[in-house]
Amino acid sequence: MNRNQEFENMRNEYQKTELPQNGREQMKMMIEKAKFDRARYDKSRIKKQMFKLSFGMVATAACAILILPNTSAGIAMAMEKLPVIGPIVRVVTIREYKFDDGHNNANVEVPIIKEKDNVDTENDAISGVNKTVKEYTDEIIRQFQKEMESTGEGYHGLDLSYETVTDTKEWFTLKITAVETQASGYEFSRYYHIDKMNGKSVVLNDLFVENSDYIKRISDEIKQQMRQQMQTDEGMVYWIDQTDFPDDNFEQISEIEDFYWNEKNELVIVFDEYQVAPGYMGCPEFVISENVVNEILK
């Protein structure tokens, strides 16, 4: 079955489905989960151009945790000479978390960015990204352990992987993707960016001139694309312009919304599953044309 046929089947199934009485509440819980995950970021640290996740949770594991060092590189990419970071950057798997008790299973790969020719010192951006990735993946593992206890003999799965999304003269982007599976699946990703030209890690807000209206411009463009897609294809569904559940409507992006630069050097905004659309729509992406933001980019 090709991807188009698979999407068509998912769309037809969604259109035929009658939600049970508590179906809408369950969907809203998934939406709130996505919002909560994004709200974990400590915004005071964003100003220092790195993420800082703040957690007060102490996890108790019901079963043993297996964390193994992995000396072989999961990904090793040679890059052109960088003006600040160094001539060679590699992304490698530094540890793995694997678990399977017959009811629950997890497969997690935790990456780290390394400067091959700069062993003694580490660029602040690389150090910041590595620290944040560790905190983020550690918290996902702790959440898995906690939820595993509550599911008992029910099924709970976790898969976490990574990939290098962008590797150009200007940008390096690492993507962390997690898929949680219980009664249904939930996919979410985080993107970590390093500006090669100045050796700094950045979030969406850092791309634009201070006090510019980039949030409104990008949000309006995304809404326009959503409406156009839904008008063109009735199988496309986004949570916008709803009158029955107006609180669920997409209003605007955040200062730390996920993004990446595609092969055409276009800005792409990425949403988690269930964040702006039903689950069968996956993780929606919207390409923002240059005429929308070009004049306000730094």
Strand order of the largest sheet: 1-2-3-4-5-6-7
Q: Average pLDDT, to the nearest integer?
A: 77
Percentage of residues assigned to helices: 25-40%
Tell me how many strands there are: 10
CATH fold-level topology of the largest domain: Heat Shock Protein 90
How is this structure best described in words?
This protein folds into two domains: 50-202, Heat Shock Protein 90 (2-Layer Sandwich), CATH 3.30.565.40; 208-296, Actin, Chain A, domain 4. It has six helices and ten strands, in the order αααβββαββββαβββα. The chain has helices at 3-16, 23-39, 43-46, 124-151, 214-232, 290-293; strands at 66-69, 89-100, 104-115, 156-167, 171-181, 185-195, 200-202, 259-261, 267-270, 285-288. The strands form two sheets. It has a seven-stranded mixed sheet, with helices on one face. Strands 8-9-10 form a three-stranded antiparallel sheet. The chain is flat. Mean pLDDT is 77; it is low at 33-82.
